[in-house]
Amino acid sequence: MAFSFTIDKGSNDGIAKDMNVMAGSGLVGIVTDVGPTWAKVRSIVDDSSNVSGMVLS
What we know:
Elements lengths: L3 E4 L12 E4 L2 E9 L4 E5 L14
Antiparallel strand pairs: 1-4, 2-3, 3-4
């Protein structure tokens, strides 16, 4: 099942494809498509989402 939503910020605001979307201190999703005034975001709970990470010590 796909979980996505559209936000009211786009390329005019510096948003680009593959950017992370954060809310508060957590990851919400990843930008999958961008227009001048909008961006489509794939939610992190979507089965096709994945996240890479690195542990700093």
